[in-house]
Design goal:
This protein has 584 residues and is of the alpha/beta class. It is 27% helix and 12% strand. Helix 9 crosses helix 16 and helix 12 crosses helix 14.
Length: 584
Amino acid sequence: GEAAAAVAGSGAPPAGELVAGDGSANGAAPAAAVPSAGGVVVPPPDPSLPPPKRVLVVGDENLLFTTGLQEAYPDIEFTVTTVLSRSNLEAYNFDPHPQVLRNRIRHMVDPCRIGKHFQGAGFDDIMLFLPGLGFATPRELGSSDRPLFAYRCHLFAFHVIRHSKLVLKGEGHLHLVWPDENRFMTSPCGAAGIEMGQLVQFCGCKPVEAQFEMEKIHADHFFPFILGDVPTELPEWMSGPRIHSFMLDRSPIAIPLSVALLLHPDVGFVSIKDASPDAPVSPMPGAPLPLRMALVHEANTRKERLKEIYAPKENVDDKPDVLGLVPEPPEEDSLLSIPMEIFMISFDDLPHLSMVLKFLICEEQPQLSVASLDVLDPRLPTRISRPPPAKPTAPNPLSALVNSVMQGKKRQRSQEEWGMMKFYCPLTKICTPTAEKMRDHIKGDLYRRKAAAAAGWDDSTEKKDLILDLEEEEASERSKRARIGQSDSGGKGGQDRKGGRDGDKGRKGGDRKGGNGGKGDRDKGKGGDRKGGKGSKGKDREEVEFGRRSIARPSRGRRAHATATATAAARAGGFPARAARART
């Protein structure tokens, strides 16, 4: 609290002054000596000398640490980003405009999109300040001592490093501010398994001798946000941090195929590790092969295997064997692999994995600075892109006449059924098996965002056809329920059919016309007849209707993860996977 009050007393720039991203242009402060909060006078840069080294600090949300860095290393020009707004910092009693930084501050910056905020800017080094530890733990995650929290931190750092290559001049350095490893094990997230140093090396950064020393930075400048809050006293496990240095260049980050299949196919600065031979050449000379093209190539090399897995089976009980289609990465390359813990979480507790991949300090944080990472949820193996519709051919007058007659009986759907997904939304490219699921999708945030951005969607023919398909299906379901209700209302004494057709298979003295017998209950599989008769124990209703074949149970662990990656491979290659065969 004393450190925050001291920094807050340094004052803010005059009203109306433009705060730019760096001190070299766009509203830089006049070249004059600036006293800092600690009383240290930082001299202005000498224009006759070569330009100073420029370092971008990411993750210092309250700007305290960067202020201390600038005081300790006045010959280096530090620029800092924060996800918070000026009003957010003032609410926490932090100075949103430390004068020692000479307006080299960017507020409300998404750390996973820093390349969009510094277009054309070139920094010599990048510094990551406690990546992932400053944000609040998502409610869906519950606690921070779980493997999913480690995956969350690793994926966040991966995307920050990947995007920082856009603002790097060339070959430079990456500096990581991280707690002492032994003390960190006693933190609230110590049991999660966070290996930030290994993750940075996994991203292609080679360790070098440290270029910054924590001892030169005053202790009052190290009071960071921890799991969404600023503690009144620095915890013991946060004492003794170090600043590690690594070599960083603009080359793409090599990741395993099993990881690439679950990322968005259009991410940049990413390549596939141990890729299949005969890969296509990048369409842009000198540029790396885009991830989307690399994934399509990997799917094509496995085309025959994918056909074997997802082709129609003679025996409906045969399950696709997907093990071995996508090799599992070695342990040192599995930091970005989704932990198996995800298969033990129900959809009621976590509807989608992306819900725990949102990074914010507080609820008042501006939405534009909330980092939200998009990955495929391995519990949903049927998330495969829909094949493009066939190009329409010239209409035949005779067939048009026949179709008009047939449509008088029942309207033909504009989209063919694919993979047992009856309903298709052209706006979001999402398929659902039932009208109820499509209604739920229309109420969701994704559909609303797309509809708001698409001009003319509300009056389009595609939307009208979709609504007509839903209404027809719902009317058909209502008529079916009405017919079932009428048939159930018949029988002696007005009783419904308890046990259905299962009465033949286990009744005692009961018959199909309502004879007396044992106690019947349809839900528990007890005997009975169609007209209200009662009987003894019979077979389960689902087993009777579908015969004696067993219903596949959801698989767990490695088989479920292999199914997800295999289905994602099919998505990359454009192969339609039958949803009925892609159970987990």
